Amino acid sequence: MASTTPKTLIALIDGLDPEYLDRSEMPNLRRLIADGRYRIGKSVIPSVTNVNNASVVTGCFPSDHGIVSNFYFDPRSGESVMMESAEFLLRPTLFERAAKRGLRSALVTAKDKIKSLLARGADVAVAAEMPEAEFLAAIGPKPEMYSASVNYWVFQAARHLLRRNDIDVLYLSTTDYMMHTYAPADDRSLAHMHELDRLLGEIVDDHPNLTLALTADHGMNAKTEGIDVARVLAAAGIEAEAVPIIRDKHVIHHQNLGGACYVYLRRPSDEPRAYDRLRAVAGVEEVWRRAEAAVEFRLLAERIGDFFLLAQRHVAFGTLPADRAEIQIRSHGSRHEQRVPLLSYGAPDRAGDPAYNLDLTCGLDFFRSEGEPD
Hints:
CATH class of the largest domain: Alpha Beta
Number of helices: 15
Distance between the termini: 35 Å
CATH superfamily of the largest domain: Alkaline Phosphatase, subunit A
Largest sheet: 7 strands, mixed
CATH architecture of the largest domain: 3-Layer(aba) Sandwich
Structural class: alpha/beta
């Protein structure tokens, strides 16, 4: 039975490069696009999961919310940690803002890291990677993380929660294993997208007064050449820590190879030589010094490297057995994976003409707390 209670769904489909939409049979999404407002926009750079989920959940750039990578290296201590703790997050979440409006909220995600990073203020939070007994009973067994079924489970859990009378706002975030593994025209990809479309259609049909904001954290491209930046610099006598920004525990997805990298120099005096050497490396498309990168990409300067590197479309940075190697993966992180869909459907929003995925959140009616200007 359809509900007349207003609901808001913010859906971030991990790795949803617009080419997947172009290639797939998705009648429900095409209906929403026709009846809503749709354009191709931008993700935040670096185009990786944690950075963009944080941007959408807080409605601001990394210079404000502080999440600049999937992985954090502290040059003062030499320690490295996954950037997936709420301690790193410096701005209020949409869940905290919803609570100020008297609304109850929920987060449903595939990856437990998104739950631990962003669920602050949510009344309900569940990750398919580590679901609680309540959701196993309602939705079904814990899904396999490296499969299409984990995303189906996420949508089913979201539908389950939205049908409850006590959830007004829900944030849904899938995983991009299927996009890392299969190109848009692959039959397995087409089947995955078609099923997501069917599940989204069920949610929309449940709630005629649904407000929907749908976007992605990044696109996806085939990578055929890998570069080990630390090895390249070491060959020139420059000691450095090179951190692939994509690095996380889901190695099967991307082998910790991605299109963006932070470089931390052991000796500050090496900065001029390192800059010249990096700019000369074939496959490195852009080299930015810390201060310049912070301004250009709206990053928090104290949490990024001495240099920020972006790769050419076919190139990924990471740890390799040599300074350069042939690879065969699908990955992201660079400007070439910045194109994402921006869909607003349902109640009027205030996003104007959105340019970035985070603009969809800023445009939602509940997002501004009491006392903030419209």
